Amino acid sequence: MNYNHSYLVKFQYLGFRFHGWQKQPNLKTVHWALDKTLKFVCKGIRFKTIGVGRTDAKVSSTDYTYQLFIDEKIEGSSFIKSFNINSPSDIRVLEIQELTDEKFNIIQHPKIKEYRYYFSHGEKNHPYCAPFLVGYLQTLNIELMKEAAKLFEGFHNFKHYCTKPSAETKVERTIDSCEIVENTELTASFFPKKSYVLIIKGHGFLRNQIRLIMGALAEVGKGNYDLDFIKESLDGNSDITFLKSIAPASGLHLHEIKFN
To answer: To the nearest whole percent, how much of the chain has pLDDT over 90?
Structure first.
């Protein structure tokens, strides 16, 4: 089914009340809310939307992109204004640009994604923190977690860091950078005095890969895993019994997407 025009639309959303990006029967998802708003903004105009990738329930994004196929030309500023007036308060469009390459495919086009996982430790957080960062009640060894995070950089076998991989799943991937730093960017008056962020960059990630990495790092911080265990978990020939500890979804944010 051909459309007359194609656009890339950059927008943001807080995922805490949504059941992820992908449309699902009888559930409120980001894609559902997006198309519902577009049906009002582009009333009577045929269109289709494709997201840059899936996000889990409660995962947020400060830089998500979708491809909009539509039969009529869009005037950018008026579209952004109309969409933001009529969309839910937890969704906001930032910019829109028309695509000149008819073969552009948002799913297949090479890109670098940066994810951030925000967390704190050692105390119970204010309830308002729940949509943004995860509070571990135990005191974590942050310095050891920083060392462990660097072990994920480079080309590794991530079969232990993927939920239900199939026989066709390519579990060998490259992570460009992986580090834990003190969080100074995402702040609020009700946040704990000190919090941290795991920053991961790469060309593509497996299902739940980042949440499983964060879960493993938290286990390192608790003293349940050591650095040798993490090294062994990235060896495709290893037969270790890997205790999958998946971190809660609400701390995860898709921070930036750069198309090559």
So the answer is: 81
